[in-house]
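User: Predict the structure for this protein chain, please.
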Amino acid sequence: MIFVILITDSCKKEVDNITNPPATGQLPTVSTSVISNITTTSATCGGNVLIDGGTTVTARGVCWSKCSTPTITNSITIDGAGVGSLQVV
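Assistant: Here is the predicted structure, written as structure tokens:
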């Protein structure tokens, strides 16, 4: 299983985005692309950080694992920062 990750950096108290949306009035929004070109050792995947929700996106990338719940402590890529797209091969 592969997930696109969004890492932000903030010294502010953690905010519940459901009951207290960010000051921009928009929640962070990420889209993911379809995983393709799957082989036994590689795949192509990616996504797009569309809206930062009023916080700084310090890194965007993909994490993956052989288990069904990968986290950033598993294998990851860092493919830039800020709003924008990424593609990992």
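The mean pLDDT is 77.
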